[in-house]
Design goal:
InterPro entries: PUA-like_sf, SRA-YDG_sf. About 40% of the residues lie in helices and about 15% in strands. The protein is α+β, with helices and mostly antiparallel strands and about 400 residues long. The chain has two domains: about 150 residues, Conserved domain common to transcription factors TFIIS, elongin A, CRSP70 (Transcription Elongation Factor S-II, Chain A, Up-down Bundle), CATH 1.20.930; about 170 residues, SRA-YDG (PUA domain-like), CATH 2.30.280. α3 packs parallel to α6 and α4 runs parallel beside α7. It is globular, with a radius of gyration of 29 Å. It starts with a strand and ends with a helix. The relative contact order is 0.09.
Length: about 400
């Protein structure tokens, strides 16, 4: 039977998503619905569309997470800035179809928690004045359907240390000692703690935008040679390989691609960055910490921003400290792609992981300190006052017994 091709307005959205993908923006999985439909002469156009949309669609946990990021980190900020009129008709159509598919799909609680898709749905339903009413209504229905099935989703928590969580198998909340954690990682083949791993030229397989909760986890991954939270230059006698910027290290420029770095007086790596030898001219990895005072810092944690080259350096005398500082100019390599996709990181779910990590560690530290508190205290007159919950109370003797002893 002869067939033809039906091109719908949805195809324009597919093309737009392809362009976004080239720019590093994750396209929604529902863009697959924008592919051309095969038109059978025995069926009407409406039947063809309905048949295509009614096909079962299974979501993996990773696909759900990409959908949640698309809603929370791309669409929602756009709607917050410009209102729901900022959404294109094809975006509304795609999101509406996604919500419909989610409502008809059997999604496990584990996949919901891992992907944080319920938080994306909550954002739409809870900000009704931002989003088109049709999307808000669908989100409300979906939210209450999940609550009816699984109970309050807020009570399920975030899977940080358990299966599927970012830190599953890496550490536990009780691992408060950096030294003990490093010893633990030395027994794991996945950890790349040797300084020689990070003291190599190139990106080492990392992608601009890669993110970690703190420098210690970046050290475990092998992109830097220590977990020092103060940052600095990764270097050896042969050259410099990476720079972790914190505090006032960066002199912000008009763009994130070109900036100046204040090298620290006690960091020997500054000599490797300013050396005139051919061995010192290779690109270095730049990582920005959330503690950096810069427009381009991540919201939380530590982010890899790509390979940069040194284009110049100078000696600057600081007015406040009266010290001479080496200021090095970096330029990002054009081959690293656009910084737009890098500046999106960390995603909302990554910021939540960072916050949860801090909360659980603080909680464990407080419990540990509580158990280490002494059961007595020294009073002002030099006597020992036992804590009431630790003191041993002896039974009071009866009056008759006391009178008999007298």
């Amino acid at each position: 039977m002869a067939t033809g091709r039906l091109h719908l307005p949805l195809l324009d959205f597919a093309a737009a998503q392809h362009r976004d993908h080239q720019q590093g923006i994750e396209p929604p999985a529902m863009a697959a619905l924008a592919l051309t439909l095969t038109l059978n002469r025995s069926q009407s156009i409406e039947d063809q569309i309905a048949s295509k949309l009614n096909q079962p669609l299974a979501f993996s946990a990773e696909e759900l997470r990409q959908q949640a990021r698309w809603i929370r980190d791309i669409l929602d900020p756009q709607v917050a800035r410009e209102g729901h009129d900022a959404l294109h008709s094809d975006e509304i159509l795609t999101l509406d179809e996604l919500l419909r598919k989610l409502a008809s799909s059997d999604i496990s609680l584990e996949d919901i928690r891992y992907s944080r898709i319920h938080l994306a749905i909550r954002d739409i339903a809870g900000r009704a004045t931002r989003w088109p009413k049709k999307l808000v209504d669908r989100s409300d229905v979906l939210k209450y359907a999940w609550i009816a099935r699984y109970g309050p989703l807020k009570a399920t928590g975030l899977p940080l240390y358990e299966s599927g969580g970012r830190l599953n198998g890496i550490c536990r909340p009780e691992d408060l000692s950096k030294e003990k954690l490093l010893v633990k990682w030395l027994k794991s083949p996945a950890a790349k703690l040797s300084p020689a791993v990070a003291r190599r030229v190139g990106d080492l397989g990392f992608t601009p935008g890669d993110w970690w909760i703190n420098p210690l986890f970046a050290h475990r991954a092998g992109i830097i040679d220590s977990g020092n939270s103060e940052g600095g230059i990764v270097s050896d006698n042969s050259g410099a390989y990476a720079v972790v910027m914190t505090g006032s290290d960066e002199v912000s420029g008009p763009t994130p691609e070109i900036f100046q770095y204040r090298a620290r007086d006690r960091d020997p790596g500054r000599y490797r960055l300013t050396a005139g030898t051919p061995e010192s001219r290779h690109p270095v990895r730049i990582l920005r910490s959330h503690t950096l005072r810069s427009f381009w810092k991540p919201r939380a944690g530590l982010r890899y921003d790509g390979l940069h080259k040194v284009t110049g350096w100078s000696l600057v005398k600081e007015a406040k400290s009266n010290e001479t500082v080496v200021v090095i100019t970096f330029q990002r390599l054009a081959s690293e792609g656009s910084m737009d996709s890098v500046l999106c990181r960390p995603w909302s779910d990554e910021v939540e992981d960072y916050t949860e990590y801090k909360r659980l560690r603080r909680q464990c530290r407080e419990k540990q300190n509580e158990t280490l508190k002494p059961s007595f205290r020294m009073t002002g007159d030099g006597t020992i006052d036992m804590r009431e919950d630790e003191a041993v109370f002896l039974p009071k003797p009866s009056l008759a017994k006391v009178a008999g002893e007298l």
